[in-house]
Amino acid sequence: MHTFITVYHKGSFTKAAAHLGITQPAVTQQIRGLEAELGKALFDRTPQGAVPTPEAEALAHDIEGPITGLTAAINRHFDTSPSNRPIRLGGPADLIAARVLPSLGRLIAGGLDLRITLGESDGLLDDLKAGHLDLVISTIQPRSRGLAGTALTDEEFALVASPEVADSLPPGSLTTEGGRTLAKLPMISYAESLPIIRRYWDIVFDGPPPGPPAVVVPDLRGAISAVVAGAGISVVPTYLCSEEIANGQLVMLLEPDIPPINTFHLAVRSGTLSDTRLSRLHAHLVAEARHWTSGRSDRSSRPVR
Predict the structure, then answer these.
(1) What are the φ and ψ backbone dihedral angles of 156, each rounded to 5 degrees?
(2) Hey, how many other C-beta atoms are within 10 angstroms of the C-beta on 257?
(3) In a 10 Å sphere around its CB, with 0-12 CB exposed, 13-18 middle and 19+ buried, how is residue 200 labelled?
(4) Are 42 and 5 in contact (CB under 8 A)?
(5) Is pLDDT at 265 greater than 50 in this prediction?
(6) How large is the average pLDDT for residues 78-105?
(7) Which residue among 19, 52, 94, 114 has the highest number of C-beta atoms inside a 10 angstrom radius?
(8) In whole numbers, what is the pLDDT of the chain averaged over residues?
(9) Backbone dihedral angles phi then psi of residue 224, each to the nearest 5 degrees
(10) Which has more pLDDT, 67 or 281?
(11) CB-based burial of residue 192 (10 Å sphere; 0-12 exposed, 13-18 middle, 19+ buried)?
């Protein structure tokens, strides 16, 4: 099929052979074998070259995408020259979109070949260990044998609500009753287990969250959108919602003296930084990460409850 697609584009058995690095008789033999198997002629041999038949046009239209993808997959995993394979980076969707890709703009424009996988840290670290990824930005410190991690930056968490939802709380209730006063408000989470919310409640309210989430959306930007729309409350990283806080779409319900934080780690398989391309990207991410979540977000001028 790869030979067929090559002849289709080159319009010549001889040119296809030169492109594929095989002999012209080998190309002829493969095309004749394919035609015999399909029971249809695929090319008309003319003085101008190999002209595809209508059946060949239809076949090429349907299989070109899959054949190109299959070839790329084989090259990624089995090409013995590392420089010919894209670097495979994994990380959380919100951080990749909001911080990582903008910080890689110049490298990508300069020729960086990158493939990105989005997901949660535990699964991405498993893929890294199995060799399916080269770098992972993880909220979990890698501890598995064969993996090495570098601390990148800390993200700070904030308990947020829309102004309307914030106004529905009795004045001073968070100070006197703590997290219990939020028990009837819908909770928006990015995972069923409430990982960020649970961490915040443990540190700030010294107990578990009041109940299961009302909405689960596996992207913190989606959670922020729901809270802005007045759907409920959530705990989100301040770097993702600083604009909404600054323009009054969101209100921080509390400002703890020591806000809960989490650390991002850049994980690789031990020894792989000997690859120059990988080490260059690793160093760039470590340097850029200092600016991803630096500084506390702008605060709303509304009083803290």
Answers:
(1) -100, 140
(2) 4
(3) buried
(4) no
(5) yes
(6) 84
(7) 94
(8) 89
(9) -65, -40
(10) 281
(11) exposed
Exposed, middle or buried: residue 17 (CB in 10 Å: 0-12, 13-18, 19+)?
Answer: buried
- What is the spatial distance between Cα 200 and Cα 196, in angstroms, rounded to a whole number? 6
Residue 102: both structure tokens together: 């903008």
CB 199 within 8 A of CB 154: no
In this structure, are residues 107 and 135 in contact, taking their beta carbons and an 8 Å threshold? no
Task: Tell me the C-alpha distance between 252 and 200, whole Å.
Answer: 13
pLDDT digits (tens, 9 = 90+) for 114-147: 999 999 899 999 999 988 899 999 999 998 888 9
- Closest by CA to 259, choosing from 239, 277, 229, is 239
Burial classification of residue 276, based on how many CB atoms lie within 10 Å of its CB (0-12 exposed, 13-18 middle, 19 or more buried): exposed
* pLDDT for 69: 79
* The residue type at 56: A
Q: How many residues does the chain have?
A: 305
Please say whether the dihedral angle defined by the alpha carbons of residues 232, 237, 238 and 239, taken in this order, is positive or negative: negative
